[in-house]
Amino acid sequence: MFKTLLALAFxxxxxxxxxxxxxxxxxxxxxxxPVEQLLAxxxxxxxxxxxxxxxxxAVCSKQGCWMKFAATSEKGPFRIKVRDGxxxxxxxxxxxxxxxxxxxxxxxxxxxxxxxYQLVPTAVAIAD
Length: 128
Hints:
16% helix, alpha+beta
């Protein structure tokens, strides 16, 4: 009986230590560039498929349809945006490292504010 309980406890620990929460396809983390590197020359990557990494500093609290990566660059902010319901990013992603692959686009901020950049992803992985 003790061995069975010990085995169950070990299994629960093993399976609770997942590597990432994944949405869509598989992200090639080896090809990822830090968001700050992308923002240093965003025009070079516009309308191209890129993979970026960064720390999530905000998540849509209504639909989970976007996340913002922390960016100190003047060319920020940087957002990962999907159509409502395509992927639902958890609020628990805030503060975690995330990787995303997708098409880079300009993100218009509104009147009087500088445009930012956003990625329309086909794949997202949030490190646990």
